[in-house]
Amino acid sequence: MGSTRFGYHVPGDKRGWDVPAEKAILDWDRIVELMDSLEYRLVDLHEHEFVKDGLSVEFGIIDTLPSFAGVSLDDLEIHQEEGAKFYLLTPKQYFRVYEASSKDSYRADNNNSKDIHKIEYLKTII
After folding, report:
1. What is the DSSP letter of 32?
2. Are strands 4-10 and 55-61 parallel, antiparallel or unpaired?
3. From CA 42, how far away is CA 32, in angstroms rounded?
4. What are the DSSP calls for 40-97, one per residue?
5. What whole-number percentage of the chain has pLDDT above 70?
6. CA 20: distance to chain centroid?
7. pLDDT for 9
8. Strand bridging mode 78-81 / 55-61
């Protein structure tokens, strides 16, 4: 799989990709500040992806999951770490997200089929 990847879903604009990437996630400036303080480097604003030492952390817009991937917000579990609240999806929910993502033209053009590998991996653990 290459680098270790973590995906977190946080509140954002329900219009998703219809707004500029830097405005799509609420409190984006605070997230960037926090990630900078942890020495993560923003590598893809469109995907809200940061990297450091082989770790990749991506932030998604929780509010778009129902329409994008058919994942109900009522089925999500909130986690809290050092005062920050976030949602972490189950493997089955991630499968639905990556399956939907694999059909997205931006990811298909820029992700070198990584979504397909993730889908295959998730199939083995579901």
Report:
1. H
2. parallel
3. 8
4. -EEEETTTTEEEETTEEEEEEEGGGHHHHH---GGG--EEEETTEEEE---HHHHHHH
5. 89
6. 16
7. 82
8. unpaired
Instruction: List for the chain the helix, strand, coil content (%; round to 5).
Output: 45, 25, 30
Q: Please tell me the distance from the alpha carbon of residue 4 to that of residue 118, in angstroms, as a whole number.
A: 12
CB of 122 within 8 A of CB of 98?
A: yes
**Which tens digit of pLDDT belongs to each residue from 3-48?**
688 878 888 998 887 899 999 999 999 999 999 999 999 999 988 9
pTM of the model: 0.75
Per-residue pLDDT tens over the stretch 74-110? 999 888 999 987 778 899 999 999 888 888 666 556 6
The predicted pLDDT at position 1 comes to 44
Give residue limits of the domains in the chain.
4-89
